[in-house]
Predict the structure.
Amino acid sequence: MTADVGTQPSVTQRIGSALISAARQLIVPALAVVSALILGAVVIILSDPKFVSLLGTDIGGAFGAGFRSVLAAYGGLLKGSVGSPDAISETFLRATPLILAGLAVALGFRAGLFNIGAEGQIYIGGMFATIVGINFDGMPTFIHLPLAVAAGFVGGALWGFIPGILKARTGAHEVITTIMLNYVSYRVIDFALHQPLLQRPDRSDPVSRFVLDSATLPPLFGDTRVHWGLVIALAAAVAVSWLLFRSTKGFEFRAVGLNPSAAGYAGMNISRTIILTMMISGGLAGLAGAGEILGTNHRLTPLFSPGWGFDAIALALLGGSRPIGVVGAALVFGALRAGAAPMQAATGIPIDLVVVIQALVIMFIAAPALVRGIYRIKVGKPTGTEISIKGWGA
Amino acid sequence: MGRVTTLAAAIPRGGISRARQRGYGILYLVLAAVIAFIFGNVPGGSETTFGMNVGRGVAVPNLVLPSAGAAYLLAALAAAAGAIQLTRGFGARWALALTGVIVIFAFAFLTWIAADGQVNLAGILQATLQLSVPITFGAMSGILCERSGVVNIAIEGMLLSGAFASAVVASATGNHWIGIVAAIIVGGLLAALLAVLAIRYLVNQIIAGVVINIFATGVTSFLASRVLAHYPDLNNPERFGPIVLPVLSDLPFVGGILFRQNLFIYACIACLVILHFMLFSTRWGLRVRAVGEHPLAADTVGISVFFVRYRNVIGTFEKEMTAGHGFIGLAAMIFGGWAPFGSFLAGLVFGFADAVQTRLSILHVGLPTQFLQMVPYLVTIVVVAGLVGRVRAPAADGRPYVKE
Amino acid sequence: MRKQRWLGPSAALFTAALILAACQGASPSASASSAASASAPASAAPSIKFLACEVTDTGGVDDKGFNQNAHDGLLRAQSELGIQIALLESTADTDYAPNINTFISQGCDLIVTVGFLLGDATKAAATANPNQKFAIVDYAYDPPIPNVLGLVFDTKSASMLQGYLAAGMSQTGIVGTFGGIQISPVTDFMDGYVAGVNYYNKQKGTSVKVIGWDPATATGSFTGDFTDQNKGRTTAEAELQAGADVIYAVAGPVGQGAMAAVLDAGNAYFIGVDVDQYISVPGFESIMLSSELKRIDNAVFEAITEAIAGPFPSNLYVGTLANDGVGIAPYHDLDSKVPQALKDEITALKAALIDGSVKADDFKVAS
């Protein structure tokens, strides 16, 4: 940026500089995605049976076959994620729980807490929402639906409260307690689904009764699969943004995250901040579970989350722990997930490819220096500074 | 800090604070009450039979105890420990007392649960040892990394890809030893990646670890569906059978527990001894610890932080592990105060919880299966949170070191 | 900074090297074991224009369990009938509906959905598309949906034969079982197993005991998943130490851990489930007494044949002992160890179960 010093910058200059700084912020994520796709292509080629079988005899043919596989795979991904209105709906549908879970982890990051327990909080939130959603027949929608959504938040918050209070009171590191609580939550769901409270009467397998219509999140447009959960997720993003950057509480969160001892000297209550952060973080993850149950599945089953809580860690990193960044990252991952099935149907390439690509993306994101090193470019400030996670000692 | 060798030493010298001491005293009394009033509350004349044999060594007669009487005796012991703790205190031996009370409580629990029935004590102990192995290996890996200042939460990912590599390579070559070598190489490569990310690129170490975990999960499951699903022969490695040590395995009671185990258990013990010796009795260990605890101080003495950190992260052990055990291993490392034998002890606690859990489901205790399955995870949480609380991590743990 | 430039690409190289290492490990014997390759070209059979599509549940197609068995049925139809097949794996509940819809829009002639978890999604899709044929494994609709064929299996009766066999072979008078997760497709096996032991006791006046499952209280041993073989091992060891000498593991791949424990114990037997595990899990021939067979592949093949022929004649396929939808695997290496009298009694029990004079449910709880 070499704007003239001394003179007031013109409107075009200001827009220009805003664009440049936006581009600078986007360059690492964009290059990370590109690098991941390139390495993903290498994985596809190397694991292509045709490539392997032709390699000894016909190298040109082998690479031809490999590249055709790559084109087919990425073509399928693209078509399945943005190729039609239904595909776009699917992308937004997949992004919905990812946005909420990503916000949950990002909020923790800001306060120096590593919430790996979003997965368990999603489950417990989903369970709470189900309990409210399948009961209270006859209650009007405008009460029942908000109540069910709120129950999801409460469930997640409760599951976040446990590691929060353990950390605040005993110093037990949240990485371990949240992971253990994930395993506990699977068993809790499994147990609950065998109880008359939840289990469908005509079924002996673990599946809950259907959520009542009055507690169902309606489709956003016509009969698309994407539902009002998306609106909740976007509203949550705005709310978290406000909380973090406009409110005093958010300032405390970030202060505790950056330097707990300084925050303590400044008179902030660190224990309370930790507990509150974990509860809001868990609540957001719980909302993800509630949205999925009330909007998409309409019933609770074991293992209904394919690991959103873990993807969320990647999303928080990818989005630089900024709510707007998390939303953007969730849309990218949502598109990958939405495109995965059509890709498999068309090419037979396993959907796990998407997981490989996701992992590569976050690896490049987590190490801005890596991207710098590969592309030999100067990029904006490293995203690492916004995440203040330390070792066990804290 | 001097030699950190035992659980007790994980806490600053001189025992524990007054408040905490009182807390433990009360805890012991509560446990004594639970033993007396809940575990002792069995029909009169009930007997609990403890099986004392496992394997085919010299047989020992089963231990038959009156259930209620045993409970009262154990309650009295726990109460005595509580009383001493409250009045005199155990001083520096507080951890020993704590361990003792936990053992008493566990034994009383078994007596109660198997009243009028039989539980194979030798079998439980054998399984405890066996189940503690993967946890202890994970903990050792963590210790080595963290002693030199790198937090390694990628243990799970290393285990997963190691298991994958060893299964494939052992099947392809038909030799399980080559499979082990492959697992070590792949684990080492991931460790190298962690080292590069954490030390060269200054990526936050916990984040780098999570990235590696996700990456390992993705790549192994992708290759499993893309390759192994079509070539099942590639996933059929030869098995490691038990190694029955001659003579020793015939010893009564302990023979079956200690000397009729698989290779990894012996390897685990050997690694523990070697790691302990290396860390606490060699120049190398001194440097590692110095670097981990005070990078700047060590720098002035002229040790290359970079070199030691790299070498350590790459030289990790990992073997035979499964979902969640990598993380339980980390918990064991913390519980054990970043010391090899301490973490082995912690591994035994988790192994015991798991072994008992399996037996309970056979005894029809009427608890839902799901709750029994939660036990090892809950024990981990309780241990990390309650019993030890704030342990002292190596001082420079988790902070990338930048040479000025 | 000079070093950094070198290390930048090197990190990427590490990654690539890992993948390469994994692939190279795989490639040499990948070609060597091509006989095991499932995707044999369908050149032998005449090709007909019929597309059969499978949607798996979250276990994925390589689960060594029902998803894979169903896929085997598709593969057999591909090679024997000359049809085309396609596959979609689900990673979450969310995937079921779009996966089914993807196949509907691709013009599949028959969509096979695998597992009770797909019950709701299959019903919704079948009602919305009455001309689209479906077959669903392990699920039956009541009332039936005209364009859906439910494929269910009488695993209880087949397991009863295994229970009888186990009781007859036990020296200690204690036999064990355990499951992966406590769901009815698993506990049905265990119920049948207990019924077989109870029937044996009633016939012989013995008192063989089952540990690991009690149908009356619905409590027993479960490893909690279908992946952790170590848990299978420790669970089997616990039962062996409690005196059991025959183990029936209803836990998919987890059963392999139990086989290892049984083999190491040395004086016990193992009974497999779903497929003949004597063949599918080599290395344990000396302990493999028999296996309960649940022929999902046959059922899927049958469903494809019916779908090619026209509308489904009925909406329910029940795999029974009579139509070989379920069965008992040969004794293989242990054939000489099983007394001829016991073999005859099992054959007789099988006949009695087929003609209905003995019912597994009557013996679930010991009388």
User: Anything to note?
Assistant: Residues 224 and 230 of chain B are 9 Å apart (CA to CA). Confidence is low (pLDDT under 50) at residues 1-14, 296-322 of chain B. Chain B has 15 helices and five strands.
